[in-house]
Design goal:
It is built from 6 helices and 2 strands, in the order αααααββα. With 177 residues, it is mainly alpha-helical. The protein has a single domain (4-168), classed as Four Helix Bundle (Hemerythrin (Met), subunit A). Strand 1 (119-122) and strand 2 form a beta hairpin.
């Protein structure tokens, strides 16, 4: 891998970007679901916390340590309703995500010469190297930073009504996550 330490540092910065975007959101903004569809900021943060522990960290560890072992199943889309994300409070969820990310970063920083080419065969995605998982983890943060920014943009539009912020430019519609 060209720069694993650089990717690990990006995970640290990704958590800080998420914290900066989310911290200080009041309850109404945290629970706002955009008219264009999708999750609220609160639901995104709950998702990030669960993905931190049940997806990326766990699956990367298994791929590095026991690549032939099956990964535990996940269903992030179902978790939103099943785990009642919308009924939670933002601050404890954000704090939980940040604490889990700190745990992940501490673990990643202890790795000595990991084999990033170690692979696990995923039933949907096929052969996935540990390096693919690390890269996807970084990309996952960035996708959700974009999503949170979009939610905040749409929320600001509703607060400005009947006035229109388009003079500043319009936000292009990103592809669905």
């Amino acid at each position: 891998m060209k720069d694993a330490q650089g990717l690990i540092e990006r995970l640290s910065r990704g958590a800080e970007a998420i914290r900066a975007l989310v911290e200080g959101a009041d309850d109404e903004e945290a629970r706002f679901r955009p008219p264009s569809g999708g999750w609220s900021i609160l639901e995104v943060v709950c998702h990030l916390k669960d993905e931190e522990t049940e997806d990326f960290r766990q699956r990367l560890r298994l791929t590095l340590e026991s690549p032939a072992r099956d990964w535990p199943g996940i269903d992030p889309a179902r978790w939103v309703a099943e785990r009642r994300y919308a009924e939670r409070a933002l601050k404890p969820e954000l704090d939980g995500f940040l604490a889990e990310r700190a745990t992940s970063l501490a673990w990643l920083r202890t790795l000595r010469a990991p084999d990033w080419s170690s692979t696990h065969t995923h039933p949907k995605f096929g052969s996935m190297a540990a390096g693919d998982l690390l890269a996807a983890w970084v990309a996952h943060d960035l996708l959700h930073v974009r999503q949170i920014a979009r939610i905040k943009y749409e929320h600001a539009r509703t607060l400005a009504a009947p006035y229109c912020p388009d003079y500043a430019g319009t936000a292009p519609r990103p592809p669905p996550l």
